[in-house]
Amino acid sequence: MSSIKNVAVVGASGNVGKAIVDALLAADFTVTALTRASSNSTFPSGVAVQKVDYESVDSLKSALQGQDAVVSAAATAAIGNQHPIVDAAVATGVKRFIPSEFGVNTRIETNPGLKTMLQGKVKTLDYIIEKGNANPSFTWTGLTTGLFFDWGLASTHLNFNKDTRTAQIVDSGDEPFSPSNLPFIGKAVASILQKPEKTANKYLAIASFTTSQNQLLKILEEETGATWQREPVDSEKLNKLGNEKLSKGDYSAFVNFLQAYIYGDGGNSAVKPEANANALLGLQNEDPRTTIKAWLEGKL
């Protein structure tokens, strides 16, 4: 496969998208952000912008002319029907498509609520694989990253509140899980595109580190010199609450299902050493303490 230089990014203004764009620019890729006509998003200097109609293959084909790769960083709630993007990518000779798989591994996750809410991602990748099988020059890479660690701390989605020094601990708090920091994810995407032969048609898993809620709480208590209050949470109740919300069309249920799956005893979501693609992508494991210190100091 020839080298990849020109990369179009969907969702480039989002949390993951920004990190990906920064990493691509740092790696000397030529980056184009695809946005809706109504978008007022701004991007770093050097990023070209193409306004598109995501429901129109013709509009997308025009925007993807000359692009070697497409990276979708669309948020889960905005996944929708991405088939037109895939069809346009195939029609314009795009060599690599990285769909919005960032987060839990949609190929193997077992939480019923998450499986329901992630069907858009599952169907998109299934369609991409189908198109790749029919068009060998069109390849794909799936990338699962676990929770977004730095973003999760800053947004309190990891259940740690530095202002009140409280920690909501699901079940025992000992279940291992494997999160990633956003810049780490960006570097992984850039590396995938720098190694097109080694990463073609593969579903890869990365992680900044593997830890547990109790291990993180220990670091927090060491760094703050204080004992934090533990607030126990039952994963079964999280799933029940998620189902109640989902039945009413409340998609904040995603957080409940996600926490039950990632933190709940027996979730088994941690990346296995033999499945970890960090080495393949030239990524060095990170230390959670570094990110925690930055969060406590207000730098996230």
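the 2nd protein, sequnce then structure:
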Amino acid sequence: MIHSMDDRRAVSVTITGRVQGVWYRGWTVEQARARQLDGWVRNRADGSVEALFAGHGPDVDAMLDACWQGPPKAIVINVKVAEATDPGLTGFEQRPSL
């Protein structure tokens, strides 16, 4: 389904808990691409995972819900969400750790 740019939403997300070393980033790339989202994901030095999701509003919301679950070995404590600037049609990638 093709959506207009008007119904897009972009959010910056920080996921905390046991989210590094449990394939969280790879899982996030798969999940975001399956939802045709744009953005990126990376590990942070403080042990959290940071991501930017942009796309059709309901698809972004579904991704945020999925982030609370994560891959099987993850233990998610919190998903902090802030509205963000839409990066445009970039695809979704895993970025180097910060």
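The chain has a mean pLDDT of 95. The chain has one domain: 7-85.
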